[in-house]
Structure formats: structure tokens, C-alpha cells
Write a structure and sequence with these properties.
It is built from no helices and eleven strands. By secondary structure, it is mainly β. The protein folds into two domains: 9-96, Immunoglobulin-like, CATH 2.60.40; 101-177. The strands form four sheets. Strands 4-1-5-6 form a four-stranded antiparallel sheet, with no helix packed on it. A three-stranded antiparallel sheet has the order 7-8-11, with no helix packed on it.
Length: 184
Amino acid sequence: MSDDLTEPADKRACVFLILCDNKCGDNADHNGGSVIEQIFSTLACAVQGEVSKPVTLRTLPASDLEGEERFQLQLVHVSNGAVISPSDGSATVIILSDPRLSGTIAVSADSQSVVVGQPRDGYDGSGRVRLLRNGGKYGRVDVTWQILTSPDSDVFRQTEGIATFRDLETAADVYIVVIIQNRH
């Protein structure tokens, strides 16, 4: 973005733009004041007759996998008598996450052989299969699971379901429960 600073000061209005994180002004320091984590700032000047001024924000490539990010763009410190609208003085900037950030789902090594049996003597007939998410941990991921049995089988309380990884979760559990069989 380039500003026409060659115009006389009385013929241009400038706005200082600050880009800060989604907690902009919400954090309190130890003295009860507000802490703003500033990320980007620039001066945007409009000359007489201009009714808008574009501002371009460029994201920088990062080697870290990151989830969706939100930032607030605020207009502050206007010059030359102009007024910043209290309702239109800010914008939310959303940087979408990379689809690869959901990670790779696998069965934990200690869950690859799970033995369950009939409930008896204090044993409830259940077993746990732990699913792990590697390579990324951002966003919600639903994993459909299914136990393959014969159509008329009534051995398990549940033979299919959904295991959910919430944002930042790296593990989810599937519980398998055997029902009591009264066959004589």
C-alpha cells in the first residue's frame, strides 16, 4: 500500500491501523490495565475526494502447523478532524487453517490387540481402543468406527459409532463392551 503524503496535511485524513491478536485489549496486566499484543501497524492516508483506502495484509509462510487464526483490525488515531465510526471501526481477519492440520489418525500400539470377554466376577466385559492423532491437532475430526460381525450377532453392546477429536486433542477412546450371553 502506498499513501500520498505529498498532499498538504489539510487535504488528507490519516488513520493509524493496528492489527492485534484476538485478545486485543481483553488481557489485563498485573496492574489492572489492558495489554494489547500488537502484530502489525500502518498509516493509511486518504486525500481529499477519496472515500476508501485499501490495506493489504500478507501472511508469512511458517514451518509450524497452525490452526485457524483470528485477528482484529482496529482504526485508531484519526487526523484532520475525521471521525472513526464506533460500529465500523474494526474488522475481524481470519486466516484459515491448512486441511493437513487435522493430522493422521491411527490406533495406538497398546490398543492393537484388545481382549474382551463375558462379564463376570467384577469384570464388566469392556475394553478400550485408543486412537491417536499425529502430525496435526487442529480442528474437530470425527472418526467412524465399526466392529465387523455377522448380521445376527448380539455379542457387543455397540458395533459402530463415532469417536471425536476436538480442537487440540491428540487422543480419543472407543469402548467395546460385551453383553452377557445366556446360551445353554
